[in-house]
Amino acid sequence: MQNDNPFSSSSFFEQLRKITRNEVKSYDPSFEDPVEIVLAEHFKINPYHLPLRSRFIKWFKQYEKTSPRCHEDLLYVPIYFFPTTKNYDKLFFNFILTVTLADIDDLSHSDKTFMTDFAVNCLKTLNPDPTLPTSILEFIKAMNGFLSGADDYLRDHYLSIMVEFFEGCRTENIIDRWSLSCDEYLENRRDVILSRMYTYAIWILEDRFGRKEFDLTFDLMSDIDEWGVLMNDHLSVWKEIEDEDPGNWILIKCRQTGEAFNDIYTEQFKQMLDKTYDLMNKLQMIDLVHHTDIGKNILSFVAGIYIWNKYSKRYQVRYS
């Protein structure tokens, strides 16, 4: 029977150390890489069915040779390869922080991108249940702290793959959960945050109208323009409304949006708009809504959430 806690195996660590330091001169030729021997012998894992296996091994060996801050027992545990349980949360968190954040400036741009992918894939594999336990929230916070000093490309890349992770969170409090991955570096990238929020509106509407898959590509402008045209065909809410109160400015537009859909402007809709406004105020987004395009994004996001909530039979999004 498989060991419930593979990380307690000192022999496992020893074998990995020997392998990565090239102290093992011969190994079973049926395996492509000596690391796979350890995986197969200790955990009965088929090494040919492991996502990211080859890329991780390649990066891992390079990192082990070049990093002066190699934390042995953590760096020698490729957590993504192991069957996961909730008991692994702490070890996973420590490992990812070590591998992803230690000496990150010494890595190439492609390695930074790969490790960001790797970390989020670990996140998905470790806990696919979108309830976001404490360790996951700590991980997101730590990653956001790291990304505050990263370049725009890497931040945008991280945000894009976090969208993929949060696809599993189509439950209540979706807006609050989404904000968790944004607030640490919101000040510098609020335009990107809003465009990703807008991704949700498009994605929700695609779900509502029956498309099975929606390609979350980096450039969403064609979809954004298409939805903007659709809204403009039915509404005349995008004209500038002069008002000293930004909250009132938002609610005027949202009320017009709701009225244009005839039956959706209900007390529930108004409560949801109020909640959205409170969140925007908390995240210091209010000053951005005076920009016409961003105003469109916000309203489309809100309207998309509500339409989906009202008409979708597959999912229930509740706001209380």
UniProtKB/TrEMBL annotation:
Q: What highest taxon heads this organism's lineage?
A: Bacteria
Q: Name one Pfam family in it.
A: Terpene_syn_C_2
Q: What is this protein called?
A: Terpene synthase
Q: Which species does the entry assign this protein to?
A: Chryseobacterium luteum
* Taxonomic classification: Bacteria, Pseudomonadati, Bacteroidota, Flavobacteriia, Flavobacteriales
